[in-house]
Amino acid sequence: MSDNQNEPREYDAVRGGQNPPPIDAAVLGGIPGVKSRLASPIVEVRIAALSEALKYGEAGLDLIIQALQDESMQVKFAAYLLLKDRDDLKTKPPFQDYLPVFEFDVITVDAYGKENSRRKSSAHYFREDLGNGVVLEMVYIPGGTFMMGSPTTEAGSGHHERPQHQVTIPTFYIGKYPITQEQWEAVTGYNPSEFRGAKRPVEKVSWGAVRSFCQQLSEKTGKNYNLPSEAEWEYACRAGTTTAFHFGETITPDLVNYQGYYPYASAPKGLDRRETTPVGSFPPNGFGLYDMHGNVWELCQDYWHDNYNGASSFGSAWDTTGCPNQVRRGGSWDYDAVDCRAANRSYILGGDSNRNLGFRVAALLRLPVFSSSL
């Protein structure tokens, strides 16, 4: 230890959040120390302080609840992870205000399109206020690992969906619905769509216009919005399933807006609507996401590649330059059922737009894993 009287001694207390603290100095402990670290400008310091707050009973709980209002989304969700399993009423109002839960039915069908199961499920989401009563709902997607692409045995699949490969996706958030015309107009001030309707998906948007929308939305909200990567999109679409559709082996016009005259597997022919439908008109998948099959094609961040050779195994966008085409997923109202499969992929020239093309936004959030719980 230094003999310099101006340097901290072994048991001197200093404010938390100093990185690194002076040599031989002790960090201020207890609730005062937690409070000081929660005031740090460093996000990682604030998150670590939340974990320490667990030691201090009700006083620590109060600090964690307060952190639900932190300016950093990472800190907010770190606090959420620490509180989510508590049963006491003290934590309920903040969750309802910040991360409410919505409930829905998850439906599966057989190869003939007949419903063979229905279960209740729920998902967390948050609301983004875009002004004038227009709200964007973003759904929490838990991270996980899945097999991206299609097997050779899947009818209608092609080489561009292979090789099937394992991909690990971190936690992220994605739009509950494709971006609607009222949401687009709330951000950009105009509406390019052909099939008009506030709750219908926006269409006739180019990749460049969509990227500009994401930038404007980020500036408006203070969060980082973007298109989902192709891997994130497929992971979100499948919602833990491995079949051609998240509904099961096939789809019907009662479940998806597509060209019903051209069914998949043993499903019968059905209605061809010849236009978009309001978002949320059909049942969601297991993550609580609507219209992942059909209605409008959805743009992704990625540039087009002819197959998955060299693709990332961690879900990041394949955005290397050199190709003028952008990936689109999910099929549309004007395409056959086979084009709406979870693994199906297509592309569009970056500057093109048409009445089949829309998108939904995503927000990525990486959180630490806490081993302890209240």
Helix/strand-derived category reads alpha+beta
Question: Unreliable segments (pLDDT under 50, ≥5 consecutive)?
Answer: 5-18, 21-26, 366-374
Strand arrangement within the widest β-sheet reads 3-4-5-8-13
Q: Between the first and last Cα atoms, what is the distance in angstroms? A: 39 Å
The level of helicity is: 10-25%
- Alpha-carbon Rg, integer: 24 Å
Q: Bin the strand percentage.
A: 15-25%
How many individual helices? 8
Average per-residue pLDDT, rounded, comes to 88
Apparent shape? globular
How can the largest sheet be summarized? 5 strands, antiparallel
Question: SSE string, helix = H, strand = E?
Answer: EEHHHHHEEEEEEHHHEEEEE
Number of strands: 13
SSE layout:
Elements: E1 13-14, E2 26-27, H1 30-38, H2 43-53, H3 57-66, H4 73-83, H5 92-98, E3 101-109, E4 115-131, E5 134-141, E6 144-148, E7 165-169, E8 172-175, H6 181-188, H7 207-221, H8 230-238, E9 297-303, E10 325-329, E11 345-349, E12 357-358, E13 362-364
Parallel strand pairs: 1-2, 9-12
Antiparallel strand pairs: 3-4, 4-5, 5-8, 6-7, 8-13, 9-10, 10-11
Helix pairs in contact: 1-2, 2-4
Describe the protein's architecture and organization.
The chain has 374 residues and is α+β, with helices and mostly antiparallel strands. It has 8 helices and 13 strands. It has a 5-stranded antiparallel sheet, with helices on one face. The protein has a 4-stranded mixed sheet with strand order 11-10-9-12. Mean pLDDT is 88; it is low at 5-18, 21-26 and 366-374.
